[in-house]
Amino acid sequence: MDWRFDNSYARDLPGTYVVQKPEPVPAPTLVKLNTALAAELGLDPAALLPDAAALFSGNALPEGAEPIAQAYAGHQFGGFSPQLGDGRALLLGEVIDIHGQRRDIALKGSGRTPFSRRGDGRAALGPVLREYLMGEAMAALGVPTSRALAAVATGARVQRERGLPGAVLTRVAASHLRIGTFEFFAARGDRAMVQRLADYAMARHYPDLPQGEGRYLAFFDAVTRAQARLIAQWMGLGFIHGVMNTDNMTISGETIDYGPCAFMEAYSPGTVFSSIDHQGRYAYGNQPLILGWNLARLAETLVPLFDADEARAIDLANERLGAIAGIYRAEWVQVMRAKLGLDGAQEGDADLAEGFVAALSGTDWTLGFRRLARATAPADLRGLFKDMAALEAWWPQWQARRALDAPARMQAANPAYIPRNARVEEALAAAEAGDLAPFERLLSVLADPYTDRPGLEAYALPAPESFNDSFRTFCGT
To answer: Helices (DSSP H) in 41-157: which residue ranges?
Structure first.
């Protein structure tokens, strides 16, 4: 079938990638095809099925695909790695979807590339299905995200802490341009390529920005707004990315790279699930700070484009960086207004939101907001909230600000179902053992997260505290 590839990255940015074909796998079998996403991309799911295992494992390539491994660098846990790149991923190309949006289609786990370093270039089935599940959940929650088009088992084992069934993920994203892409060329003093990347990113992701003098400042401002809005949405949902390295932060403002991510249950700003985040750098409460840190790294790459006068360019960059906290704060307050069912916008809304968050300490984040929507008095929430005195002190202020239709607004902004950690682990363990039923069930629950449905009550409840106290996630894909 005709995929109608139009591969602008490969065509317009030579020197930013290495041409590379996927490595064949011995016995590919289709595990999951995202038929709704396929249709959104303008592909016929029925026509895909006969060749799906071969196409989505990399054993065959769709007509028009030009597989490349993209180059990028990145600050990883604060330390700079000048060369990372696609060590186990390949961009097959780009298609224009039915909404007129350009989308990347890439394989993850498709074998070694020149950027693999000591890695095997492969992925295991559990982490592949985790990324599939998380991306679909975030899309249903209304968060900008990469998504999975397909998951294929390879018929081979990959060696991690133990032998695991291998798999390949097909990932769809607005693009795979990262802050680390700019860092790669800035670190090499290649100002011309940084400028070409910025021009390409503007044309692709921010086509309405003004041209001429000041366009690179406008570009940085647009990326700042997109990423601030994204992190505010993460914070509103209790989502912890787990590895906010600059190579995992997209220029488009999409969530990407679902490795050691998880959703917080009991609210605590210091919550960390990632097994490799030993210092808590990417803890839940640190994510807004890391937003600013990462954007500062992007600004460093763009300073030569801000103004011909270096001193003025640095001043302009510092002005932008000084404004990030306020931009994020405004986005967060907007998220919280929706979650609290507030009517319009007023001074003091930030304090009101912070008051409720403080009252949530130790309480399940998702249930706290969801059940608040139906509560008529603080007593309705007894047994859920740990600090009833704080809740009761906060309640009158909220009553004075909430909209008449607050319950409906709040139910539309606060999910009943999130990918709760115990449910995710249960589904992935079953899938690795050959039983996909729990995965399919969880996927169907998360497809409609804002609607209470009879029989799914268990999916709305947190795991026992003992589970979350010891739960850790891993960078497995």
So the answer is: 45-48, 52-57, 125-141
Nearest C-alpha neighbor of 224 from the set 146, 284, 299:
299
Strands 29-33 and 17-19: unpaired
This model's pTM is above 0.85: yes
CA 175 vs. chain centroid, Å, equals: 13
Residue 441 pLDDT > 80: yes
Angle (nearest 5°) at CA 373 between 368 and 379? 70
Q: Is 471 exposed, middle or buried (0-12, 13-18, 19+ CB in 10 A)?
A: middle
Residue 328 has pLDDT above 70, yes or no: yes
The model's pLDDT over 407-421, given as tens digits with 9 standing for 90+, comes to 999 999 999 999 999
| Cα dist from 47 to 1, 51, 414, whole Å | 7, 8, 38
Region 286-304 average pLDDT: 98
Which residues, in sequence order, are bridge partners of residue 164?
158
User: Rounded to whole angstroms, how far apart are CA atoms 151 and 128?
Assistant: 7
Contact partners, residue 408, CB within 8 Å, separation at least 6:
none
Could you give the CA distance from residue 152 to residue 436 in angstroms, rounded to a whole number? 13
Sign of torsion over alpha carbons 427, 432, 435, 439: positive
Which positions are annotated as active-site residues?
247
